Amino acid sequence: MNSVSLWSRTNPFAEFDALVRSAFGDSAGWPAQRAGFTPAADVVSDGEDAVIRIELPGVRVEDDVTVEVDGDRLVVRGERRDETTDGGRGRREVRYGAFRRTFGLPRHLGPDAVTASYDAGVLTVRVAGAYAQPATRRIAVTTGQPAAVAAGESPAESTDEAANQE
């Protein structure tokens, strides 16, 4: 599982660390990567924005990487292709194959809040307002009359409705 929630207010990195451990374990074996690779990602806050940096060296971003917003999820997917054609033997530590990373987005954000750029092997995705506090709306408190009466009902209608509900 490669899902990360961007807006955990307590410790935004705890969920990320837990996901990495559950996917790969704490050992250096990392057997889950044999079929492809999972690029390393950092999720940091920059003011109210979330900045996700994903290591993608050797990837042709224009052809092989897609960044999408799918509902309340940011999905980065792509493929690192093995360009060697000689079929040479030897030790290979560089992973190739398809990858997919998913990050949870706050429900109030849409695709317009997301921008992406690629430089020097690092894909940087900025999610504007990911850590913004929801706007607080103050509710006026009236005195002297029940809310139903203040809304235009007569006191008798309000009392009759309350009696019918019991």
From TrEMBL:
Cytoplasm listed as a keyword: no
PROSITE patterns, from UniProt? Answer: SHSP (PS01031)
InterPro entries according to UniProt = A-crystallin/Hsp20_dom, HSP20-like_chaperone, Small_HSP
In residue numbers, the region (Disordered) covers 144-166
Query: Does the keyword Phosphoprotein belong to this entry?
Result: no
What family name appears in the similarity comment?
Belongs to the small heat shock protein (HSP20) family.
Q: By its UniProt entry, which PANTHER family does this protein fall under?
A: HEAT-SHOCK PROTEIN 20 FAMILY MEMBER
The name this protein carries in UniProt is Heat shock protein Hsp20
Give the originating organism.
Answer: Actinocatenispora sera
Q: What lineage does UniProt assign to this protein's organism?
A: Bacteria, Bacillati, Actinomycetota, Actinomycetes, Micromonosporales
